[in-house]
Structure formats: structure tokens, C-alpha cells
Specification:
By secondary structure, this protein is of the alpha/beta class. It is about 45% helix and about 10% strand. It has 17 helices and 8 strands. The strands form 2 sheets. Strands 1-3-4-5-7-8 form a 6-stranded parallel beta sheet. Helix 12 runs parallel beside helix 13 and helix 13 runs antiparallel to helix 14. The radius of gyration is 21 Å and the shape is globular.
Length: about 400
């Protein structure tokens, strides 16, 4: 994965603060990959992959496992297959920068410039993210807002690419990302590449992007949406729900015009929105054309960070209450959509995933949730209890 400061890390979920990362992508990616691959071949756990291991221990399919399944046609027997003794770069994940027009509750200043507005108002909020190491925030603000290294990636580095995954910030706000995609088209390798872009869906990208997208072998547009209406605007601060719906509608049109373009929804599930998944699924069923909705249309992720938003970090009593409520929601959805097999499949997969997440009890961080949620409320002049009244009733103090 290429990040804005030029460092190379294995993927967006990888986190090892003790790891030293190479800085030159065109040469550095092989260095970090060889280290990770050797540990994997030796049967050793990789420290920075703890998030995926935690998912797997809870019986949840991790991003690591999903990536293996996606590339199941590839032989991973590196020790016996000489073809893979020397690897070429076939997959690249790009963090397009921290430049973003939203400041989502499940995110933070490392991945969004819009959070700066809040942190600059309140020193307690800086400490919320960085503790006593205020200098880290200063360092982040001094970094380039967009990934300027993207336009310097060379043809020889990416000529064997098969998959490109782009996250942000907001990818469609980064002109360097557009240059990178343009290069892939100009080098005549876009036709070989499966492109996946995560966008916050708060706007529809400019025409230059829309012209490039159909030129790839396939494109998956992952709309990052966590709720509907006022709850959506609360969780993804800066978005306007009517514009989000307009943007989603435009993406649907693109997918209908181009067979190689598909649309899915990436849904980050936190303690905030767990009791509102039912209304979100109903919105999907009512807003999107049936022909584009598949059983994988809703890609639900259980948030692990910030830890105080994770379902696993609330008391067993609170978790028990949540289980009872979502069980009723699930049955209501099944009854309402009994004639729609695709929506029923989405309901089953989503609520089963939540159940597994609730079974993985870790630390009770309820007090930390109240403290941090209230802190952000004070800065933004909001009140999470008003926006999420059912949740407030379940986890009240």
C-alpha cells in the first residue's frame, strides 16, 4: 500500500508502530513484501495484521481471508512453485491522501483534513487522538494533503498490475490519483486491471474521472454509507443526505450504462448505528433498482478502531440488550422482505456478522465512549443522544 508520505505498508488495516517502512515505492514495495511473505511462509503471525487475526478468532471473515478468496485462482505454494520465487507486483492499494471533505465519527485527523477544524478549536480533542504527543498532530498537518507520489509511479513498476484498490481521504478529490489512472490507461494496462475505489458518495466526481473509469477491465465503486437521513449527516459530518442520494443515483446510472462497472455499499458498523441497520437495509431495498442488488451489495465491516466504537468493547449487559433488539429487527426484516431472496440474504449475512462480533467480548469501554462522544458533541454543538435515542436508552448511565 502506498501512503501519502511515500511509505509502503502491506495494507490499510496493517498497524505496527515499531515497523520501519521503505520510502521509495518503485523499489521499496519489494522490500516490505519479502519481509511479510517470509514470516507468512515460516508460519509466523505478523504483528501488524492483528485486526484480521481478531476477526478470524471471532469467526468473522477477515480482509486477509477475503483477499485470498478473491485471488483463489493463484497458487500460493511459493516454496515449491518456482514461478513465484520472484514475484511481480499484481496488486496495489493506494491511500490517496488525507484530503477529505468529511469528518466522520469513525475516522480521525490521520485520514481527513476536515478534522483539523475541530482539533484546532479544542486542545482536549488533540489529546483524544494523540495523547501527550501533540507533535504528531503537527507532523500530520505538515504532510502533503494528497498523495503526490502517485504521479511518479513508473510503468515498469505496475506493468503486471491486475488489481488496484484506492482509499482516502476521498480519492475523487485527488488530482494525482486522476493522473495515476490516466497513466494506466495511456500505458494500455487499464484493460487488464480490476479497479476498486472507496468514495464517501457526498458528491459525484468530475467528468475527467467519469471518462477514465469505463476503460478498466472492471470497476467496483464502494459507496461508504453508514446510515440514512440525519444519522448519516451526524456520522459522516459534512455530508448532506439529499446530495448523497443524488450521487448514489448517478453511480447507479453509470453501472447500468457500463457492464464492467458495479456499485456496492461499504457500511462501517459501530455502537452508534448497530440499532439502525434495519432502517438502512430497508432504504437499500427501496432506493436501488433490484437488478443491481446482489447478496454482496452490502459490504458490512465491524469497526475495531476507534476501539471505543467497537461492539466488542461494551459490557456483556449492554451486548445482551443489543442482541435482543437486533434479533427483533432481523425477524421484522425477514417478514417484510419474505419474497425478496437477495434482501433476505443480505439480512442473514449482516446480522450473523453482528452476532459474531457481539460474541467477541473484550474490554468494557463504555465510559470512554461517553467521554469521547460528549467531547466531540461539545466541539460540534451536537448531541448523539438526540440523534440515536434508541442507543441512548440501551447504554445510558
Amino acid at each position: 500500500m502506498q501512503v501519502p508520505d511515500g511509505s509502503i505498508v502491506p495494507c490499510c488495516r496493517y498497524k505496527d508502530d515499531e515497523q520501519v517502512y521503505p520510502k521509495s515505492f518503485n523499489e521499496g514495495y519489494k522490500n516490505i513484501w519479502e519481509v511479510i511473505r517470509k514470516k507468512s511462509l515460516d508460519g509466523k503471525k505478523i504483528k501488524g495484521c492483528w485486526r484480521c487475526y481478531q476477526d478470524e478468532e471471532a469467526g468473522i471473515t477477515s480482509m486477509r481471508q477475503s483477499a485470498i478468496d478473491t485471488n483463489s485462482e493463484i497458487s500460493y505454494d511459493y516454496k515449491t512453485n518456482p514461478k513465484y520465487a520472484e514475484t511481480e507486483l499484481e496488486f496495489i492499494e493506494i491511500q490517496t491522501g488525507r484530503f477529505c471533505n468529511l469528518k466522520c465519527r469513525s475516522c480521525g485527523p490521520k485520514l481527513s483534513t476536515s478534522w483539523d477544524e475541530d482539533l484546532d478549536k479544542n486542545n482536549h480533542l488533540i489529546k483524544n487522538f494523540f495523547g501527550n504527543e501533540d507533535h504528531k498532530y503537527i507532523s500530520i498537518k505538515q504532510m502533503p494533503k494528497t498523495n503526490e507520489y502517485l504521479s511518479s509511479i513508473k510503468y515498469d513498476t505496475v506493468k503486471y498490475l491486475k488489481n488496484v484498490k484506492a482509499t482516502g481521504g476521498e480519492p475523487f478529490l485527488n488530482d494525482q490519483f486522476q493522473v495515476f489512472l490516466s497513466n494506466l490507461v495511456e500505458w494500455d494496462i487499464a484493460k487488464n486491471i480490476h479497479l476498486e475505489v472507496f468514495t464517501n458518495c457526498s458528491f459525484f466526481p468530475k467528468e475527467q474521472y467519469r471518462k477514465l473509469i469505463p476503460k478498466f477491465k472492471s470497476v467496483k465503486i464502494d459507496l461508504s454509507l453508514d446510515a440514512i437521513g440525519e444519522r448519516a449527516e451526524f456520522l459522516r459530518k459534512g455530508s448532506q443526505w439529499n446530495k448523497v442520494m443524488d450521487s448514489a443515483t448517478e453511480w447507479v446510472k453509470v453501472s447500468q450504462q457500463h457492464q464492467n462497472v458495479s456499485v456496492v455499499i461499504g457500511h462501517t458498523l459501530t455502537i452508534y448505528n448497530v440499532l439502525y441497520l434495519n432502517e438502512f437495509i430497508n432504504w437499500i431495498a427501496n432506493h436501488f433498482p433490484k437488478e443491481i442488488i446482489t447478496s454482496n451489495f452490502l459490504d458490512l465491516h465491524l469497526a475495531q478502531t476507534p476501539q471505543y466504537l467497537s461492539l466488542s468493547n461494551f459490557s456483556s449487559d449492554n451486548q445482551s440488550k443489543i442482541k435482543q433488539i437486533i434479533s427483533k429487527h432481523k425477524q421484522q426484516l425477514i417478514s417484510e422482505h419474505k419474497d425478496n431472496e437477495v434482501i433476505l440474504s443480505i439480512v442473514e449475512k449482516s446480522y450473523n456478522k453482528i452476532s459474531k462480533g457481539l460474541n467477541y467480548v473484550s474490554n468494557d469501554l463504555s465510559n470512554e465512549f461517553f467521554e469521547k462522544a460528549n467531547l466531540i458533541d461539545d466541539v460540534r454543538n451536537e448531541n448523539w443522544r438526540i440523534t440515536f435515542p434508541e442507543l441512548a436508552e440501551v447504554i445510558h448511565v
